[in-house]
Structures are given as structure tokens and as C-alpha cells.
Design a protein that fits this description.
alpha/beta, Arc Repressor Mutant, subunit A, D-Maltodextrin-Binding Protein, domain 2, 12 strands
């Protein structure tokens, strides 16, 4: 099996049809079919099931795909380095909205001051989307605060964080320092979208207590959420780092929830099969240092 075999296999997986894969690879369709057949013959497995004219990965195919993307990308990265195209390296970094809003700009400025030859390409998404991009090798590394579910992702904690319940100064809760969890039952909430680590932590905690949440707004923009809360549209639970300024200026009011503390950690995350280049190692080393010194 060669790198070309893997490239053909990945294309068939991505496009779902051998004819489309052949078109994208500028190959004849019989050549694509032959490449797949050669892999299957070499390892004595079936990579696809053909049902109702569609291709579906078998278990063997899914196992191969997990490795194939990283093997091909590592090979391409090696070629770039050997051909001296890697002097200006680009790191593809994923960050959650919380990280992107609070700390990413300063972190990148300090990192690039010390590593001017390393360029960065940033993707701001929720934790679920970043996990998916890491599994597809669309990212080199990510910084997230949500729960990572796939065991193929390596997780390295770098900084603690805390969620807080906040309301406007006109809300009934603004006169209180703390409320009981049951007091949240009929409140309007403005929360992040599905896949958000913030929403997942809060929702799971409420679900464990048997308290349903009344969703008024679902939004993937932290600034829009803060503005809606300040405008009296409802409550939200949000990273304390995102509302430090508003709390200090008395534009928002933080309320404790009795018996509950929403603690979590920001984590560096990357695929276990990812080749750790010197540039990537430099970035990984810079993150704990940045967060520990502020």
C-alpha cells in the first residue's frame, strides 16, 4: 500500500462515491476502484459496503480512516520540510469562543513575538466542532474548556475556569447574593448552542438535579448573550473571565447557586497520532507559561 492508495481511500470516504473521488483526483474511475480493491486484497478486509447505490464504511474502513488522514498529512508535512517549504510554518489552532474572546489575542502576540517564523491560522468554534476538526486533522491543536469525548484526543490541563450565573440589575435576583437550584426552574435562560462546553456543563448539572431549563435564546456569540442579559431578556451562565469587566462596572450581577460550583479547566487538546513538530512543541510549551504568568 502506498500514500497514493491512502489518498484515494480518503477521497472516496469524503465524497461518498468512487466517480466523484475519481473526478476530484483527476483519475479514471476504474483506477480508483482498483486502488480500493488492492488495499482490500492486501489486508484481507472489506472497506466499504454498497447498499442502495451508496457506499458505507465497514468497521475495518473506519479503523483505516482514523490513521489514513494523519499518515497522509504527516507525509505531506515531511515533504514540505524536506523541500525547504517549511521555513514559514503555519499552525492551525482551534479555540473556543471563551478562549478566543478572553485570552487568545494576547497569547498569540506573545508567542509570535518569540517565534516570528511561525504563522498561525485560527478557527474559533465550540468544543464539539474543535474535537471533530482534530479527528479529521483539520487542526494541529486546540484550546477548549468543554468535555472531550473521543479517547484519541490527548488532553492537557492548563488553567482553571469558573462559570457564574449572571442577571441584569433590574432582575429580581439582582437583590440576592445566592439562590437555590429550584429557583431556576421557571427562569428564562439565554445560553450557548449545542456543542458548547459552557452549556453542556450547566445543562448536565441541572439535569442531575431534575431541573428543566427554560430556553429563551440560543446564541453562539458571547457578546450578544451579555447584551441580552443586560437588556433584561433573561439569565445566563457564563465564564467569569467573560464578564469580569461588566461585574466590576456593576452592569451585571453575579448570583451564587447554593450547593453548586461550576469549576472546569481550559485544556490543550490534540490527536494522539499527531506529529509534534518543533513549532507545535513551542506553542504547547508557551501556553502553560502564558497562563501561569498572566
Amino acid at each position: 500500500m502506498t500514500i497514493r492508495h491512502l489518498e484515494v481511500f480518503i477521497a472516496v470516504c469524503d465524497y461518498g462515491k468512487m466517480s466523484t473521488a475519481a473526478e476530484k483526483l483527476f483519475m479514471a474511475q476504474p483506477s480508483v476502484s482498483q486502488a480500493i480493491a488492492e488495499i482490500e486484497k492486501q489486508y484481507g478486509v472489506r472497506l466499504f459496503e454498497r447498499l442502495s447505490g451508496k457506499l458505507y464504511l465497514t468497521e475495518a474502513g473506519e479503523n483505516l480512516l482514523k490513521y489514513a488522514r494523519h499518515i497522509v498529512d504527516s507525509f505531506n508535512e515531511m515533504e514540505e520540510q524536506l523541500m525547504d517549504k517549511g521555513k514559514n510554518v503555519t499552525l492551525k489552532i482551534g479555540a473556543t469562543i471563551t478562549v478566543g474572546t478572553c485570552v487568545l489575542n494576547e497569547l498569540l502576540n506573545k508567542f509570535q513575538d518569540r517565534n516570528p517564523h511561525i504563522k498561525t491560522q485560527i478557527f474559533v468554534q465550540n468544543t464539539g466542532a474543535i474535537e471533530d476538526m482534530l479527528l479529521k486533522n483539520s487542526l494541529d491543536i486546540g484550546i477548549v474548556e468543554g468535555q472531550i469525548k473521543n479517547p484519541d484526543i490527548v488532553i492537557t490541563p492548563i488553567i482553571p475556569d469558573e462559570l457564574v450565573l449572571v442577571c441584569s440589575n433590574s432582575h429580581d435576583f439582582s437583590r440576592l447574593d445566592a439562590v437555590d437550584p429550584k429557583d431556576l426552574r421557571h427562569q428564562d435562560f439565554i445560553l450557548r448552542e449545542e456543542g458548547s462546553g459552557t452549556r453542556e456543563l450547566f445543562e448536565n448539572s441541572m439535569e442531575d438535579l431534575g431541573i428543566p431549563l427554560k430556553m429563551k435564546w440560543i446564541c453562539n456569540n458571547s457578546e450578544a448573550i451579555k447584551n441580552a442579559v443586560m437588556g433584561g431578556q433573561g439569565l445566563t451562565v457564563i465564564s467569569r473571565m467573560l464578564v469580569e469587566k461588566e461585574l466590576a462596572e456593576k452592569k451585571l450581577h453575579a448570583v451564587k447557586i447554593n450547593g453548586m460550583k461550576f469549576s472546569r479547566t481550559f485544556n490543550l487538546v490534540y490527536h494522539k497520532n499527531k506529529y509534534l513538530s518543533d513549532s507545535l512543541k513551542n506553542f504547547m510549551a508557551a501556553c502553560p507559561s502564558f497562563f501561569s504568568h498572566g
